[in-house]
Design goal:
Blueprint (H helix, E strand, L loop, with lengths): L1 H18 L9 E9 L2 E6 L3 E6 L13 E7 L2 E6 L1 H5 L11 E7 L2 E7 L1 E9 L3 E3 L9 E3 L9 E3 L2 H6 L9
Parallel strand pairs: 2-11, 5-7
Antiparallel strand pairs: 1-2, 1-8, 3-6, 4-5, 6-7, 9-10, 10-11
């Protein structure tokens, strides 16, 4: 009878081991709406995206800087349309490829960013997001290997965008 007790003890120990929750490693991530702007992959923190829409109509603003394309209505709200690539000095061949807008919000303001294509949403591990060497401004971080075809993804800092003096509310 002794062997049966050993088998029962072994089975009870195995049952206790299986009943214990496994330690699950969690990695902090940042949800990013990804888009292509002038052929550059950009990630916008999802929590800062107010809405996304197709660009249907654009009213140009005479005398506006080249990066400020004009005004449009999105869901009944008038918003300024910003060519992010031109704003930060990335090369662009023109705005003919712009098909959509991503409206971002911050500091009680909204602005629409041009998008050639909306690519989707990714959960970027915080460990994959690093500072661009010597970078500053709204695109000073990059998510490694998370862009299209495994390339890098520029990560937009919405606060830095709105803090830029070129977008100041009172420029006078």
């Amino acid at each position: 009878m002794q062997p049966r007790r050993d088998v029962a003890a072994i089975l009870q120990e195995r049952a206790r081991a299986l009943a214990r929750p496994e330690a699950v490693e969690t990695q902090a991530t940042e949800a990013l709406l990804t888009l292509s702007s002038a052929g550059h992959a950009v990630g916008v923190p999802l929590g800062r995206v107010a809405r996304a829409a197709a660009l249907r109509h654009l009213t140009e603003l005479p005398g506006a800087p080249s990066y400020l394309l004009g005004l449009t209505a999105v869901d009944g709200h008038l918003v300024s349309v910003l060519d992010l690539a031109a704003f930060v000095g990335l090369p662009r061949s023109g705005v003919a490829d712009v098909r959509g807008l991503v409206v971002v919000s911050g500091a009680n303001r909204e602005i629409a960013l041009t998008a050639d294509v909306l690519l989707g949403i990714v959960d970027a591990p915080e460990s994959a997001i690093v500072a661009v060497p010597g970078g500053s401004g709204p695109l000073a971080r990059v998510a490694r290997d998370l862009g299209p075809q495994g390339g890098d993804l520029l990560v937009l800092d919405v606060d830095a965008l709105f803090d830029d003096p070129r977008l100041a509310r009172d420029r006078g």
